[in-house]
């Protein structure tokens, strides 16, 4: 009786049949042939490698690490996320930032009113003369790096409707309350906003950003893991360079910046008006003043003007600076007045009694003759009375 097809046994073809296991001698010979070892040479011992959780090292107690520790190590080994960052305002400072962004592996898109296509290509960025083309590339972050004075017209000229509805906007302006209010008023509510101020520039950071302060304020970041991760990835650009990360409100920043940045620029520009020059006997303090002039006057006057116009604390600081100068002058001139009085009136041989000092308009007669008329009429009246 024939076997039904459902239970019929089929032998695999000869090419798929399992071959007998090689002997130890055959296996050793094969390893020697593959590594081209000389005949009779001993093969190195086998090394077993594990993957996954089994590959984790044992701790001091001989047990596997906990799952949390394994996850932490895996997170540390993951590279930071790459962002597509649009730098709006590709002047000197925008190019300064783009150089580091490209070096970290981020994609940089550039836009400016002037044609910086050659500079962008040299840095590894892509330049867009038309802001519509820039926004249609859907960058993750739009970084505003314009001057303070041109920030508002530039922001309002951007076709933000061509961006994704959850785009992150950030700025690097030297004042913070002004761009915060500008971005909150000009952008849709779905957009994220982070106001930042790198407290350094191409001159002060020519040797690197390590240790330099970076101020930031998470003005508006959506409560979504992806949006929070993007915000942290953007801030991580500066943290990876070793910046000293300082989180504070925009109002607090402007209060501090008036005393640090605006005052520094004001003193530097005042000293520049004196046309100071190096001398053969320059002290270190004087050389510091010369460097201050170079650092502050290398920036445009628009920057200095923006520090004054868009920080409400700057006007008060100017008044305090004038008061301080007047107070110093008063102290100097009061001391000079005391010296002059001593030179004029404290000479040797001068009468000790102030009543005996010569008075303008005549002599003061201090002798009492019992006749008030003589004291008033003088010598001629007295002579007539004696006659």
Automatic annotation (TrEMBL):
InterPro entries noted in UniProt: 6-PGluconate_DH-like_C_sf, NAD(P)-bd_dom_sf, PDH_N, Prephen_DH, TYRAAT1/2, TYRAAT2_C
Keyword Oxidoreductase among UniProt keywords: yes
Family annotation (Pfam families): PDH_N (PF02153), TYRAAT1_C (PF26213)
Prephenate/arogenate dehydrogenase domain mapped to chain residues: 83-362
Gene source species: Panicum virgatum
GO biological process: tyrosine biosynthetic process
Amino acid composition bias (Basic residues), ranges on this chain: 28-37
The keyword Oxidoreductase is assigned to this record: yes
Domain of life: Eukaryota
GO molecular function terms listed in the Swiss-Prot or TrEMBL record: arogenate dehydrogenase (NADP+) activity; NAD+ binding; prephenate dehydrogenase (NAD+) activity; prephenate dehydrogenase (NADP+) activity
Biased composition (Acidic residues): 366-387
Protein name according to UniProt: Prephenate/arogenate dehydrogenase domain-containing protein
Assigned keywords, A-Z: Oxidoreductase
Region (Disordered) residue spans: 1-80, 361-387
Gene3D superfamilies: NAD(P)-binding Rossmann-like Domain
Biased composition (Low complexity): 38-55
């Amino acid at each position: 009786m024939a076997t039904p097809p459902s239970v019929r046994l089929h032998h695999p073809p000869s090419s798929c049949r399992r071959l007998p296991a090689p002997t130890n001698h055959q296996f050793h010979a094969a390893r020697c042939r593959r590594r081209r070892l000389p005949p009779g040479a001993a093969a190195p011992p086998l090394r077993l490698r594990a993957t996954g959780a089994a590959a984790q090292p044992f701790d001091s107690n001989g047990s596997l690490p906990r799952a949390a520790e394994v996850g932490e190590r895996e997170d540390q080994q993951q590279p930071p996320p790459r962002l597509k960052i649009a730098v709006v305002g590709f002047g000197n400072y925008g190019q300064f930032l783009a150089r580091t962004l490209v070096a970290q592996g981020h994609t940089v898109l550039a836009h400016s009113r002037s044609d910086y296509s050659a500079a962008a290509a040299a840095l590894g960025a892509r330049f867009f003369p038309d802001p519509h083309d820039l926004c249609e590339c859907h960058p993750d972050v739009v970084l505003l790096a314009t001057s303070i004075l041109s920030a508002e017209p530039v922001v309002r000229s951007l076709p933000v409707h061509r961006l994704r509805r959850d785009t992150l906007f950030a700025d690097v302006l030297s004042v913070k309350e002004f761009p915060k209010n500008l971005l909150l008023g000009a952008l849709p509510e779905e957009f994220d906003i982070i106001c930042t101020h790198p407290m350094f520039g191409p001159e002060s950071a020519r040797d690197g950003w390590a240790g330099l302060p970076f101020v930031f304020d998470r003005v508006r970041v959506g409560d979504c893991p992806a949006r929070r991760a993007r915000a942290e990835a953007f801030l991580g650009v500066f943290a990876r360079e070793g910046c000293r990360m300082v989180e504070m409100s925009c109002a607090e920043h402007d209060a501090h910046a008036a005393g640090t940045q605006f005052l520094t620029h004001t003193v530097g520009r005042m000293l520049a008006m004196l046309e100071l020059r190096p001398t053969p006997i320059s002290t270190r303090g004087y050389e510091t003043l010369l460097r201050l002039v170079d650092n502050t006057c290398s920036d445009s006057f628009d920057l200095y003007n923006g520090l004054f116009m868009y920080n409400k604390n700057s006007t008060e600081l100017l008044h305090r600076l004038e008061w301080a100068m007047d107070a110093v002058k008063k102290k100097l001139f009061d001391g000079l007045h005391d010296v002059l009085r001593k030179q004029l009136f404290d000479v040797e041989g001068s009468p000790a009694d102030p009543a005996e000092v010569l008075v303008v308009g005549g002599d003061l007669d201090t002798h009492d003759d019992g006749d008030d008329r003589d004291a008033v009429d003088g010598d001629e009246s007295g002579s007539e009375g004696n006659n």
